[in-house]
## 1
Amino acid sequence: MPIRIVRFRVCSGVIFLFLLIVGLGGASSAQAPAPAPPAILLGTAWYPEQWPESRWEADLALMQQAGIHMVRVGEFAWSRMEPVEGHYDLNWLERAIAAAGRHNIYTVLGTPTASPPAWLTQKYPETLRVNQDGRRAEHGNRQHFNWANPKYREMARKIAEQMAKRFGHNPYVLGWQIDNEYAEVSFDPETRAQFQQWLKARYGSLENLNTRWTTAYWSESYTAWDQIPIQVGYGNPGLLLSWMRFVSDTWRSYQKNQLDVIRANSDARQFITTNTMGSFDGYDHYTVEQDLDLAAWDDYVGEGHLDPIQNGAAHDLTRGFKQKNFWVIETQPGSVNWAAINNSLDKGEVRAMAWHDVGHGADVVSYWQWRSALNGQEQYHGTLVGSDGTPVPLYAEIAQLGKEFAKASPALAGTTVQSQVAILHSYDSRWAIQWQKHNDKYNPVEEILSYYGPLRVIAQSVDILPPTAALGQYKLVVAPGLNVLSEAAAKNLAAYVEGGGHLVLGQRSGMKDDDNSLQPERQPGPLVSLLGGRVEQYYALEKPIPIEGKWGTGECPLWAELLSAKDSGTEILIRYGKSNGWLDGQPAAITRKAGKGRITYIGAWLDPKTMAQAAKWMTETSGVKPALGVVPDGVEVSARYGTHNLVYVVINFSKEPQTVHLPAAMEDILGGGSKQSVDLPVYGVAVLSASR
Ligand code: GAL
């Protein structure tokens, strides 16, 4: 029997009167409306199935006291929800949701499909994934399921359907997380057959596939679909890319299998998401995210301390999946348990990190986890309460955040990030470079960050988007390492330049086509005529070589492309100094006005100092202005824009106290009053509101 709760708020935050009404039972009984949750939520992962029900109340009271308004529940609780095949027990979950609701805490329900129960994998062993070495996974950890297996999908759909029918109209359920961190795939013969079918659908005929993959090379030509192997990491580049696209499409259909049944049985206001992992590239996130309502990610620092550039880029990447605000659905309360050294973040750093999340567009920051299970694989992970159920030292910092989120929520409600600069990112390109790095120190994510870092510091906001996204709104679009350039992306970029934008291509761009074949022209392939120049040759470097030009003198480590300027309007921006003879005095970066805009190609991996100058030139040439204005080094500025207001989040990540002078007086939301400047201690945060 479900218990329905009606709550009357008599006086804000002080007195709550609870009226418990015992419902008539059944999934469809009407539920009382819940009060609207605050715009910015603090949350935690809570595992009520791991504790006696008598303990729940104490935990929820402590959460409420810390200003926590969201719990994510259920994502590993399949054996508790379906202890025996076809016998579902969701009553405890309904009681947990109701108990949380009584503390003004909303629930996000995780479908438990990352950890199938032992009875399931024992009875249907084909649902267990098979490793590349042909060994089947065993029970006892998680992610042991086979994402392509029809029986597993049938079982997953049934449990998701049961949950959705029961909770799809529950006013305290905000939304759904499908599964948990999609990652592991299977190499069993049935999956291989599915891959071969997928290839048939994509390529139509073997003749076409053989041509597009140039299988004449090494006698790779196929005369039957079932000859085609799965290859990972080393193999025909067309085959490698096809396998990753199959993996991505299979995650999409795996997700859709649950998503459809949740959508069919839930209120439209309940969102559906899944939790991703920053720069993880095990599948193409643009493929998988297109069916979701909301992007959400698990933000862990691991060893060391927060790097606001690296972490900020991961936020911006996640925000780009749906091009709107996102959630940090998991983050570390101090420390993790899986790094080489599981050091704690410093006092004040967790709070600074939470505000950094919000600045980049997160509407929720949720800590993993509330309390460690007494047994299980993650006993040492950071938590908000200890094994005795009382607060750990970090709890007070979280409670401070709870108060601050409540204070800032009205100003932040309805605000989003807006950027003048976009960085283009594609999984195809990252994979293509990783499979053939040519210099084993070449890391495509670091290449992206080498551009992102100085551009973020100058512009104070950057969007990260796929190369086929609409680009008209950006003054500057930068594509570092856009190695695979599809026809559609090339057209999109050319139109952007023709229309007045400034496109900057970074080293290794425009080399491959959509099948991961070399373009039949030199880099940047279809954009050569627009650029009025091209890459004559690329060189992997043993050691840094000198560069000199418009951006000063510096060094080029790892990678150098010898450019040529064929058009009289193409300007040479920098040149290589003396090195291997081939590169001596040759162009390393060129630019040309084209259409109403400009196109630039940077062929050299630039050292940080030269890249900072290059970023200055890129932004100045494109008319990009900082969101707030110049601030001391190490101070991060983010801005969120509403219809009538604008909120700046300013954080001191430097090692010294800093003073930030504001261009105009602003309301200091956390400190109170109107300020013309703010003093920030190390890890200090100011949240400032201005009208637009
Ligand atoms: C995440 C995972 C959580 C927990 C956490 C520990 O990757 O989703 O369930 O294991 O890591 O850091």
## 2
Amino acid sequence: MLRKTILMKGIPAAPGLVLGKAFCLGSEDLKVEKRRIPESRIPKEIARFEEALIKTRTEILDIQKKITKEMGIRHAQIFNAHLLVLEDRTLIESVITGLKKEKLCVEYIFLEVLKKYIKTFSHIGDPYLRERLSDIEDVGKRILRNLRGIRREVLSNLKEKLVIVAYDLSPSDTASMRKEKVLGFITDIGGKTSHTAIMAKALEIPAVVGLEEATAKVKTGDTIIIDGTRGEVIINPDRLTLGKYKQRIEELLRRESLLLKLKDLPAVTRDGHKVELAANIELPDELPSVIAHGAQGIGLYRSEYFYMNRVGLPSEDEHFEAYKKVSEQIKPNSVVIRTLDLGGDKFLSQLDIPQEMNPYLGWRAIRFCLARPQIFKAQLRAILRASAYGKLKLMYPMISGIEEFRQANKMLEEVKEELRRKQIAFDKNIEVGAMIEIPSAALTCDILAKEADFFSIGTNDLIQYSIAVDRVNEKIAYLYEPTHPAVLRLIKNVIDAGHKEGIWVGMCGEMASEPAFALLLLGLGLDEFSVSPAAVPLIKRVIRAITLKQARAVARAALALTTGKDIENFSKQKLKELVK
Ligand code: PEP
Ligand code: MG
């Protein structure tokens, strides 16, 4: 039977147009139906529970075997804790007693017991015991999946190219996707600058997020068109629509190849003003794309992805090898490594970071690093050691003021001293910058500019903190405005303060990847644009089509406008007029 065509509008997360078959990923929300069962059914339910426990045990043992082979026994031992949860007599007995008493299906009883466990553990003060919480959650979900007969297909193991449909995807889910396997993805929740969206852009996987009802409307096997640029999704298109989109896909490919012709040309305006046009990366796998799109280096290397999708923390040598490889391949251009920026929507199960009420305002990024000198210094040592092999710069995320910057630099100095003592080579003049992504830093950047070698404006966070709008919440996405006058004023303040002290000011937030905003930013005096690799030719085209004088006039006029919408429309209009 032919299924009905449905058109959905969401938030554009990663550009591109794709057409393919849908694959619905099992939802990981812990919800099950409350089903009554007759007394006679109880033994059967107990048997189902035992089967699920045995199946879960086999799965975990298989994972352990795979990890032992690939990464060594030490890493595999982490899963011993998962096996212990499976053998927990109190947990098993609570389920069986609950079943007999309540006469409800085993999924429901098990989930109730699991929730009680999770609640108890999350209130425990002891960090070691609290860490068991993630083991319990992980194993609990696995048992539940086995009870319900659902498998969360591993995204990295898809057999054919499909469009993924999910309620939500974590940044590490997205990081495990590969372009050869995943055509695109759509999700019910999420925002434009969530790390899931950023990762999709980096991997050049078209995506639309915040669709609210995608999982309710799409079935596995449905034909889907994703327009990641416009944020549109068409489910089961009719023949006419299908034909139209096939033509658009061809046209897009033609345009992309035209843009790539700019690859080897410099990012210079018509009146000779040169800017740095670099790329953001999350993983070293993206280097070929950075080079293919003609970026002049890397303006943001989100090093935390190196800590994800693995068991245990990376060693200093592993860090070193990765940074060395990236800097050697990008030489003579430079690579800005952003030190570990965890928290917000990026989590690591192997680190003891408790769940917080306000993760974006919590113990994250530089705050976490300063409290964990061992972890931080291992990374700093690796960066310094790698700086002997290419041009590396480093920057600290989430700097709120000069004190944090000084504390981080103090640790850096201690590491430098250690390397000197051991006669290990490093770049003595390595530039050290501050990310400006918190309003308090943007407002005190005159102080910071005296001690930092450069600034990189992180608008993804700066916008969320200035307007108090969660960057991953689709319900308030309409408030998330890069062109809000408050944001523009902060950006101008940072650029002016940096220039006054003679340091360069860049931007690595997503705002720099939007052509109309790039025009505005150029006019405000931005020196460096660091954008997703695929956006490099787009931004280069803008820069090469205009004069600095024109851009300055646009910025001046924009600053006189009063609303974000007006500024956005005005910049878009100017872009149309100036860039043909
Ligand atoms: C930013 O906040 O703009 C930024 C570049 O950092 P991230 O997106 O990783 O938080
Ligand atoms: Mg940030």
